[in-house]
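Re: beginner question about structure tokens

> Can someone show what the tokenized structure looks like for a real chain? I only ever see the sequence side.

Sure, here's an example I had lying around. Input first:
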Amino acid sequence: MRISAHRPTRRTLVSAGAALPLMAVFPQRQSRAQGPPIRIGVLTDVSGPYSDNTGEGSAVAARLAIEDFARDNPDIRAEVLVTDFQNRAEVGLNAARSWYDREGVDVVLDVPNSAIALAVANLAREKNKVAIFTGTASSDLTGRACGPNHLHWVYDTWSQAHATATALVAEGGDTWFFITADYAFGHATERDASNFVRAAGGRVLGAARYPFPSTTDFSAQIVQARASGAKVLGLANGGADTANCVKQAAEFGLQRSGMRIAAILILLPEIHAIGLNAAQGLVATDTFYWDQDEASRAFARRFQPLYRGIMPTHIHAGGYSATLHYLKAVASMGVAAAKADGAAVIRRMKEMPTEDPLFGRGVVRADGRKIHPAHLYQVKSPAESRGPWDYYRRLRTIPAEQAFRPIAEGGCPMVRT
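And the corresponding structure tokens:
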């Protein structure tokens, strides 16, 4: 069974290339504010391979953060707009440019496509606006491509690869073959994971790259992987592509032959789509799980009914966390000052400690990297699971100071070492 990369989805909120206020779904509360609102643009994948992981759910999460912020700050209004970038760089960049230039958008959020995010980061700097990447994976955003007008929240290719690759090599998975999405995210994931495999004493035997987002049949790549003789198949992709690879690998009997699968970036909706029979035993690195504590469960109870019954991913949780911290910075500066100078907002966000119910306390480093713990999980067997969405068993927690690349190693030109 294969999952289409472009399956139909509910489109009452968004039409391709158009941005509509999320208030069409969530009515705006009454506010005493008289000035212009803060406008948050969620640039996301509504209909493609990452839509369940991000999509309209990222807008839902931002709106929930606005609701919580408004309880203590009724004089500040905020609105959420959302558009589908169709996984096309020109569509995403043009939407962001239109938002910044003509629609009064102050901050672009989410962007689960690394190539588009790298372009939006440059645009935010050019326009002196703000971009907070909660859906993007490439660690280059806080490395060679760091900048004064953007931040990277939640996770990145370094953090995901670090825990997963190191753990599997230590368990004997010392030879790897990669299936890689042929664009910035896939390249960065393969690069970072390969570095950790080699650092742990393993070897990379090869890689097969495929056109993104137009590929749904991975049989040729899986045959190459099996023929390589590698002990581990590393998936340098995400969303529906990861789900398809795991399902098709099961059809080809890879795991029965002793080859382990390392899904460097796999989120809960993919596990749900794959099913525990095929996904059991997979090792996953994540910074948020809906059932990790009472605060995460409370957020999930609010979120799930608003997003097609899907439990929140770490990207959704990150959208909530980033929006809340951004609005706190706006409140400390004043709306007019925040709207006038995006770089000043970023500086304030770095100065202020982060704190929210989903990630706890943290910091934003000078290179723009938000720091918090990560967790290594193993997917449960059907017998272990108590029901839908009860899919993870935590193996260990990686402390915040170890979960992300050391600041001195990223090559960010803003960092003096």
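Each token stands for a local structural state, so reading them left to right follows the chain. The first helix runs from residue 55 to 72.
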